Every structure is written in structure tokens, then in C-alpha cells.
Amino acid sequence: MTLNILIVGVGGQGTLLASRVLGAYASIKGLDCKLSEVHGMSQRGGSVVTHVRLGESVLSPIISEGEADFILAFEKLEGLRWSHYLKKGGTMLVNNQEILPMPVIIGAQSYPQGVFERLTAEGKSYKIVEGLKLAAEAGNTKAVNVVLLGVLFQLMGETLQVAEQAVQASVPAKVLEINRKAVALGYQN
What is d(CA 106, CA 13) in angstroms, rounded to the nearest whole number? Predict the structure, then answer.
């Protein structure tokens, strides 16, 4: 069986680090892992999506629409934008944060309202995570990605110790303690 995880956010939110943590997790568990990263306008705060597939033998890195077991949405609008990838019975973890895209910043568009109501209307199963608050509690607001990974590992039924090992294998020593706290706070959420 293959586990399909779609990670979505905007440039600078750490989608690539999150995929590296999941790759380290796969290595710890002896699983095959395939990743596909789409940067888009990530350098300018644009949409970023990363496909992560884990299993005994994974042939393709791409997740088809309607096949994601989990979607980690580091920003609300990105969660809504990519919700069609979630399979029936899958779960979306949505960071309760709005990062305004450029058209909204310049006044050409407005930020969509009712994101959670729209997800509910679509029949999507989701969990709202106060990622920014928990990341700040861990010591750095940039650790939202690792907070959401903590929630994911808990939902996957993985131990916190294995989650911490995957984080330790993926982050520089100077930010390890903050990220350990972030994954633990997400896991306990």
C-alpha cells in the first residue's frame, strides 16, 4: 500500500523541508519514497506543492487528483486550492493562517472568505491547526511546517520518537531543539 501526502503552501513556508522530513521518515521505516516538487513562483511567495509517496515499492512520484491520503496545507487558501486532490476518507491538515497573494496585496482581488465552510460543503475531512501559535510556542514562527508534520505523524499512528528522529535527520543542529518542540506540540495537538 502506498501513502500519498500532498504538501501545499506558499514560497518560504518550508514545504521542501517537510518533504525532506518525510523522506527521512521513509528511510527510518525502510520504505521507498518518491518526491516531486513544483516550485511555481515560490521565490515571490507564490503557490508551492510537493507530492510525497511512501510505500514498499513506489513507481511514480506524482499523486493523481482524488488520491491524496493527507494534504498538509500550510495556508488556508492553498488548502482550498488543492482540496480536489484529497481522496474520499482522506484528511486535510490546514494551518489557520492567511498569507495574502500578490493580487490581494495590490487590491486587484480580495482574499476568499469562508474557506472552511467551502471545504465542508465539498465534503472534505479536515483538521484546523493553529500552526503559527504552536510554532511561536516552540520558539520560531517559521516552524509551522514541522508543527503540521507532528499532527500528521500522530494521525498516521507513528510514535513521537520516530517523528523526532526524522526531524533530527533533516534539520541543522542550530535549529534542532526548536523543531523538536514544534513536532512534539503538533503531535500533542
Answer: 21
Provide the phi-psi class of 51: left if phi over 0, else alpha when psi is between -120 and 50, else beta. Answer: beta
**3-state class (DSSP) for residue 108:** coil
The model scores a pTM over 0.90: yes
Among 90, 23, 36, 30, smallest CA distance to 63 is for 36
| Residue 70 grid cell | 493527507
Taking a C-beta distance cutoff of 8 angstroms, is the pair 93, 152 a contact? yes
The three-class DSSP label of residue 94 is strand
**pLDDT tens-digit profile of 88-99?**
999 999 999 988
Yes or no: say if 119 and 126 are a contact pair by the CB < 8 Å rule. yes
Buried-state track 138-169, b at ≥16 Cβ within 10 A, e below 16: beeebbbbbbbbbbbbbeeebebeebbebbee
pLDDT digits (tens, 9 = 90+) for 117-147: 999 999 999 999 999 999 999 999 999 999 9
In DSSP terms, 6 is beta-bridged to 51, 71
- The C-alpha cell that represents 76 in the structure block: 488556508
Domain over 3-134 is classified CATH 3.40.920.10? yes
Any idea where the domains of the chain sit in the sequence?
Answer: 3-134
